[in-house]
User: Which sequence fits this backbone?
């Protein structure tokens, strides 16, 4: 699980339903996640990629979620290395 900025919100990466890349005009790049229970979270990609072990664990959760019907557009899939 990844904790959001709200004290009572969590996103369960093993239950991801939607995942999308958000690119801000300020240059920030974020992954917006939503799990099956409707919890939402945005994570800065630069922070996520700081630790290779965390990245691999996250991508493993995304792979499992894809097999369960995760909604992800091509841009997001490409950014995460699922498309060439």
Assistant:
């Amino acid at each position: 699980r990844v904790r959001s900025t709200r004290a009572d919100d969590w996103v369960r990466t093993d239950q991801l339903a939607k995942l999308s890349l958000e690119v801000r005009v300020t240059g920030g790049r974020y992954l917006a996640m939503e799990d099956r229970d409707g919890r939402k979270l945005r994570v800065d990609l630069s922070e996520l990629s700081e630790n290779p072990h965390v990245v691999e664990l996250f991508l493993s959760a995304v792979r499992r979620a894809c097999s369960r019907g995760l909604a992800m557009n091509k841009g997001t899939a490409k950014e995460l290395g699922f498309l060439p």
In short: The first helix runs from residue 45 to 48. The mean pLDDT is 85.
